[in-house]
């Protein structure tokens, strides 16, 4: 359980979400080939400003609903940190993989 209030993530996309009409950043945090549970995953906008945070699930999964644009996804965990740049130019399911270590 997170002490920061960030919601834990699940695997399934909610039934009311149409990935054809929304920008969905859907990803996994790993260390090597192992999923990382309990990582704080942060979404930063193009200027580096904090936008949102979630906690990765037991399977390392996380998800953000965002506007089209350039984003940075950063994962912070006791085993290490990692980040990736994401270009989400329009609606759809944008897969994101973040490695920590």
Any idea of the CATH class? Mainly Beta
Mean pLDDT: 87
The multimeric state of the shown protein is: single chain
The CATH homologous superfamily corresponds to Carboxypeptidase-like, regulatory domain
Number of helices: 0
Total of domains: 1
Protein name: DUF1416 domain-containing protein
Organism: Actinokineospora terrae
InterPro entries: DUF1416, Ig-like_fold
Pfam family, one: DUF1416
Can you walk through the features of this model?
This is DUF1416 domain-containing protein. The structure is a single chain. This protein has 101 residues and is mainly β. The chain has a single domain, classed as Immunoglobulin-like (Sandwich), CATH 2.60.40.1120. The chain contains no helices and eight strands. Strands 1, 2, 5 and 8 form a four-stranded mixed sheet that branches. Strands 4-3-6-7 form a four-stranded antiparallel sheet, with no helix packed on it. A hairpin with a 2-residue loop joins strand 6 and strand 7. The N terminus is likely disordered.
């Amino acid at each position: 359980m997170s002490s920061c209030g960030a919601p834990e993530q699940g695997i399934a996309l909610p039934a009311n979400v149409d990935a054809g009409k929304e920008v969905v950043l859907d990803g996994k945090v790993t260390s090597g080939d192992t999923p990382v549970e309990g990582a704080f995953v942060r979404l930063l906008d193009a200027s580096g400003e904090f936008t949102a945070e979630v906690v990765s699930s037991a399977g390392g999964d996380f998800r953000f609903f965002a506007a089209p644009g350039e984003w940075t996804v950063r994962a912070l965990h006791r085993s290490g940190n990692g980040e990736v740049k994401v270009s989400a130019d329009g609606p759809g399911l944008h897969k994101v993989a973040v490695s920590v270590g």
